[in-house]
Amino acid sequence: MANQHGDFIWYELLTKDAAASARFYGAVLGWKDRPAEGSDNGYRIFGIDGTDVAGFMSLPAGAEAAGMRPCWLGYIAVRDVDTIVADIVRAGGVQHTPPTDIPGVGRFAMLADPQGVVFYVMRGAIDATSTAFEQTRPGHCHWNELSTSDQGAALAFYAGLFGWQKGDAMPMGAMGDYQFIVHRGQAIGAMMNRMENAPPPAWTFYFGVEDIDAAARAVSANGGAVCHGPAEVPGGIHIIVASDPQGAMFGLVGPRRASP
């Protein structure tokens, strides 16, 4: 695996309707979908321009009854899955899925941080570099944003386990700082305190688009909902935060090509 410890290497949608999700994200992001080779659980792959960028599957049996809802989850590369899982549990995290091998793909585990935010860790089986996170390419993830109930504790948790560092910060009034996180010299996302009455703590992943207004219209036209934006952010680009037709939250980021 060419990716380094602490890199985001994959994104995964858990949904109540895989076929509808394929249609929605195809319309919004131009993604094509195909079955994952060798999968026996209906796992499918989203790709764009011949490059795989994410996966999706139906919520596992019993997950919804246990309180899990459609959502996007991220995979973080690690040197050794078993070692990091033990470290995460010692640091106050929770193991949801034990270290498990996927033949030909790698070893992974599903966990939650001390504030209850779910994520995966993974060690890939092949010597290849994932470009699922690639800030220069439309259709790829451009930003990883954590909304948390305890920003200081979350920063310490992820930094201690994955080597992330604090970057610049933008004051957000009573909410505190929007704290950029840096990995291997690159700003890969940010952490912020969860707003009162907002959804539970979670990661939100922002996928790149070529025209934010066209993308926002596509979300609404295909059964999704724009919850915030388009709003300008530093760098002269715009974002929206949206939910897909099954309620999974995600973000889009890109330029405004013309006046709305």
Distance between the termini: 43 Å
Which CATH class of the largest domain? Answer: Alpha Beta
Biggest sheet statistics? 8 strands, mixed
Strand order of the largest sheet: 2-3-4-1-5-8-7-6
Gross morphology is: globular
Mean pLDDT score, rounded? 94
How many helices? The count is 4
> Based on DSSP secondary structure assignment, what is the total number of beta strands?
16
Q: Kindly estimate the percentage of residues that lie in beta strands according to DSSP.
A: 35-45%
Number of domains: 2
Question: Low-confidence segments, ≥5 residues, pLDDT <50?
Answer: none
CATH topology of the largest domain: 2,3-Dihydroxybiphenyl 1,2-Dioxygenase, domain 1
CATH architecture of the largest domain: Roll
Radius of gyration: 17 Å
Helix amount, in percent? 10-25%
How are the SSEs placed, and which strands pair?
Blueprint: E1 8-15, H1 18-29, E2 32-35, E3 44-48, E4 51-58, E5 71-77, H2 81-90, E6 94-102, E7 106-112, E8 118-124, E9 141-148, H3 151-162, E10 165-171, E11 177-183, E12 186-193, E13 202-208, H4 212-221, E14 225-233, E15 237-243, E16 249-254
Parallel strand pairs: 1-4, 5-8, 9-12, 13-16
Antiparallel strand pairs: 1-5, 2-3, 3-4, 6-7, 7-8, 9-13, 10-11, 11-12, 14-15, 15-16
Helix pairs in contact: 1-4
